[in-house]
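## retry 2 of 3
previous attempt timed out at serialization; input unchanged, resubmitting
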Amino acid sequence: MKPNPVVWFELYTQDIQRARAFYESVFKCQLEALKTPEGVAPGMQMLSFPGDMTSMGAGGALVRMDGVSPGGGGTVVYFACDDCAVEQGRVEKAGGKVFRPKFSIGQYGHCALVTDAEGNLIGLHSMQ
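## retry succeeded, writing output
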């Protein structure tokens, strides 16, 4: 296995526009529609997070697909932040909930755990 093996993630939604509003509000970014590959899943919708294939980290997207539901299920995607308390402060106004407010993880920085507007548990990480 290569170092930093995760290359892509998907967060599933029931209401992709509600999910879009949450992530764009919390992270102050614009999500971009992705064309669904032919034959994958009729009616599938995808919105990608900003990405840069030349830098470290994984790209990802919000996905609405028949038969797949959002919700906490054991995998947590952590989003990099300058200070995770800032994004945490936007969560409830955007329709999510703070599960565990910013806390120290020692030499590895700080984290916060929140649920998005679809019920997915996500992490916020910062060194500050």
